[in-house]
Amino acid sequence: MYQxxxxxxxxxxxxxxxxxxxxxxxxxxxxxxxQSYLVGGLVRDLLMxxxxxxxxxxxxxxxxxxxxxxxxxxxxxxxxxDEVNGVGRVIVTDADTATKREIDFSxxxxxxxxxxxRRDFTIDALAVALADITPADTGxxxxxxxxxxxxxxxxxxxNRGIIRAVSDTTFTSDPARLLRAVRxxxxxxxxxxxxxxSLIRDANHMIGTVAGERIREELLRLLAGPQAxxxxxxxxxxxxxxxxxxxxxxxxxxxxxxxxxWDVFQHSIQTVAAVEFLLGEGEWHYASTEVLTTVxxxxxxxxxxxxxxxxGSTRKSLLKVAALLHDIAKPRTxxxxxxxxxxxxxxPNEGADLAVSILERLRFSARETxxxxxxxxxxxxxEQMSNLGMPSHRAVYRYFRDTGxxxxxxxxxNLADHLATRGPELELAGWHEHARRVAYVLNKRFEEESLTTxxxxxxxxxxxxxxxxxxxxxxxxxxxxxxEAQATGELTSREQALEFINEWLAKTRHILSxx
Length: 515
Known about the structure:
By secondary structure, the chain is α+β, with helices and mostly antiparallel strands.
């Protein structure tokens, strides 16, 4: 009933590393006479011809003991994951490439069929007995299997491109699967079955019970894809987005000045879409490629946005987080002036505080949180640097001084905000002028590193020993004044800096004496 007998053997392509690792684990477990199975995502990915990162093995024994023993035999690291349900992890590092592989061992409490019935989706409820796996004799890196354990027609759903829940209790037994369903559908380009969508809608309120760490992991994987805005829109239609981030709910239906095409909520989603468009992740429905002609882009910028920030996050994925949250404080700061115009005074600062609260709740790292905080707080800053023409050296210096290593990211958030404000009513002339101003600031950043990190002409020790200034906040203020004058080209030598300090101190004493 549970096992699908295959008339012809299946050959699964694997990397040499995975083939060798599976074979070594198989030999070790065979010696112990344990029933053991490859299960879940690995089997799914192998059937699809996809490279799979990690290995899941179910064993008819205490998986914690098995994992500890296997770790010792493979010179790996043992990590107990779940002592109650018997789940252990072995981390193996390849000596030649330094590549790490994780092998998760889970305990089969009854039979493999009952174990698969507890899993999330039919395409993950697949198993192959390790005993039924042999290397194919073709000179290729393949594994040969003659029997697939597939009690819920997961292979059929793989062929149809369907994400289907194994049971009606799939989401209530583990609400993190609510996000995982959407993430898998996005990563595999699959469709969630309608009855599974209904189960998600019925259980969407339970997402708030999931540990922040698990939500962060799934959310970042969702945002890493090239269609994150569409996925966020889908999450909203499933009732999940505002359950994940309740602070977004008040933004729905909040009207904005006429220059804005969408309300605050839809504008936030469209800003994510515009970020993806600007970063070369696909088209945007409301703009042609002509819009990109004045947008700065280079190999350096691509590498910048692909930089890893923390485990699982990049600058690109965090910029999408900031895009979603950049106007989150608009509903609470909205006022209407005498002319009937809506204003949102202070929303960047209040939005930054809200973003910090949200990301701390979802267990984002301190660095991730600080970056998003700065991006939200300063998202209007680039267009405030100059009313007419290009910004001054002083304005550019102060901008990068205040935004630190998020300055480049904020420039692109500001461009995306502009696109998502006008939408299909974008005026190309105004847009190109805006983009050229951003490109100018960016070029100044790349051309003149000294603009943001000028070489030191004087330091605090000089101020104390030469000018007799006592340690105080005045030293920091004076050093910053020197750096700013240096960045704008007013000071180029130590002698000029010392003279500048003399004049600054004389002016300060004069002001104090007049007071």
